[in-house]
Amino acid sequence: MTAGQYNGDADTGVDVDAARPRGGRLPRRERRAQLLDSALEVFVAQGYHAAAMDDIAERAGVSKPVLYQHFPGKLDLYLALLDASCDQIIANTRAALESTHDNKLRVEATMNVFYDYVASDTGAFKLVFESDLTSEPAVREHVERVTSETAAMVAEVIHEDTGLPDQASRLLAVSLVGMAQVSARFWLTEAGGIDRGDAAALVAGLAWRGIAGYPLSDET
After folding, report:
1. 2 falls within a domain
2. Residue 210's domain spans which residues?
3. Which CATH number is 172's domain given?
């Protein structure tokens, strides 16, 4: 069902503009998902500061009271989107690391997580990596969680396979994650002539040549 077919909300019963075509109602969970999708489009297009709750409600085809029933304010809505985006990156990184015991393939799979993320048509990466609201502590905490949690997982693998101390493993892991984030964003804006898969493979090769120089623990 499209936003333009909506004429009410299952949990509030509030009608939208009478000019909109009439249609069915959505359960609360589906309505929340629809509102998040609409909010993502508005935030990506306009940024946090320029976006208005009116814009988001209009995009979703609901009235503002319906929107506020689900999200008390614009920041709450933005943080909900950040949660979903951060969880996606972290979960995909975990899956990449667990997909194989071959460390070279692990590096390639992890690099692809970030390239796939920035290449997504939703543009959700802008909320995480290019937010115009990083001065807000709650937003900054969410954004930093991506680096800290993905790096922690990578550091664990490095520590187990090299025998390096925890802090050294952590430093290398943060460097690898930073390489993935920055290079993926650069590829999207400045090196779009390179195929996504080729770009990820290039940077994964660079990362592997560096990290492979540290011997496995059973060789130290």
Report:
1. no
2. 84-219
3. 1.10.357.10
**One domain for residues 60 and 89:** no
Distance CA 140, CA 143 (A): 5
List per-residue pLDDT tens for the chain, 220 residues long: 333 333 344 443 433 333 333 334 778 888 899 999 999 999 999 989 999 999 999 999 998 999 999 999 999 999 999 999 999 999 999 999 999 999 999 999 999 999 999 998 888 888 888 888 888 898 889 889 999 999 999 999 999 989 899 999 999 999 999 999 999 999 998 876 899 999 999 999 999 999 988 876 544 3
| Residues 90 and 66 both lie in one domain | no
Closest CA relative to residue 207, chosen from 187, 179, 183, 169:
179
Q: Let me know whether 40 and 114 are in one domain.
A: no
- Nearest-angstrom CA–CA distance, 123 and 45: 9
Long-range contacts of 68-73 (CB under 8 A, 24+ apart): 69/9, 69/11, 69/12, 69/14, 70/28, 70/31, 70/32, 70/35, 71/35
Asked, for residue 77, whether it belongs to a domain, the answer is no
The three-state secondary structure class of 124 is coil
Q: Running DSSP on this structure, what letter comes out for residue 123?
A: -
Do 108 and 151 sit in the same domain of this protein? yes
